[in-house]
Amino acid sequence: MAEEEQSGAPEVDPQFEPVHKLTEQVVVSTGEEGDIVLFKMRAKLFRFDKPASEWKERGTGEVKILSPQAGGKIRLVMRRDKTLKVCANHIVSSDMNLAPNIGSDRSWVWNVSADVSDGEPTQETLAIRFANSDNAGLFKAAFEDARDKNSSTTTAAPAAAEESEPTPAAAAEEEEEKKEEEAVVEAKEEPVAAAAAADEPKAEEEETAVAPAAAVEELKTEEKVADEGVETKATEDSLVPEAAAEEKKAE
After folding, report:
1. Residue 198: inside a domain, yes or no?
2. What is the count of structural domains for the chain?
3. Is 228 inside any structural domain?
4. Residues lower than pLDDT 50 in the chain
5. Residue 195 domain-assigned (yes or no)
6. Could you tell me the CATH number of the domain that includes residue 66?
7. Cβ–Cβ contacts within 10 Å for residue 79, how many?
8. Is the pTM of this model over 0.85?
9. Which of 59, 194, 208, 236 could form a disulfide with 80 if both were Cys (CB 3.0 to 4.6 A apart)?
C-alpha cells in the first residue's frame, strides 16, 4: 500500500531561484600571467619531514619552470590538481643539484633554501616523481638549464653595478688618491717657486750692473763721432786756401 501511494504521488522537482545574481565575472590572478613557460609536465611532489624522518606527499599536478618576461630569475612552480594550491614555488638557484632518488630512475631529489609555497620562505628537501624515466630526463635538462641561466645573470649583475656606480669605499679611495696627487704636485711646485723668487734679485742686479756699462759705451761712441766730425771740418777748412791759390795760378 505504501509503495502504491508513493508511486501514485506526483513527482516534485523543486527549483530555487538565487537571491543575488552574479553579473560580474571575477578574474583570479595566479601571478603567472606575465611568465614564459619553459617546461610543463605532470608529476607528484614529496617533501622530507625531518622530525618524523619520512617523506610526505605534497600534491600531484603540473610542475612548471617559468621565466619572467620583464626579466628576472627563473623559478619552479607546482600546483595541485583541482584546488590549484601552490605546493612548490622557488627560484632555481646555482646551488641546486638534482640527485637521483634511491631505487628509481624517474625521481629526483634536491634541497631548497627558500621555498615560498606556504607564504614564508622555508628550507625544504623536495623529491619529484614522473611517469617514466624519459619525462624525468626532460625535467632534469630544463632544471639545469634554468639553473645555469640564473647563475650567469647573478654573475653579470654585480659587474654591471660596479661599472655604473662605484661603491662608497671605492669613492673614498679615489678621493684619497686625488688628495695625494695634489699634495705631490704642490710639493714639486714649492722648490720651483722658491728658486724663481731667489733668481729675481739676481736678475735685477745684473740689469743694474749692465746698465752703467752700456751707458759708458754709448758715451764713448758719441765722443768718437764728435771727434771725427771735428777732424773732418778741420780738413775741409785747410783745403779751402789751397783751392783758392790753385784757382789764381790758373788765371
Report:
1. no
2. 1
3. no
4. 1, 159-161, 203, 208-210, 230, 234, 240
5. no
6. 2.30.29.30
7. 20
8. no
9. 59
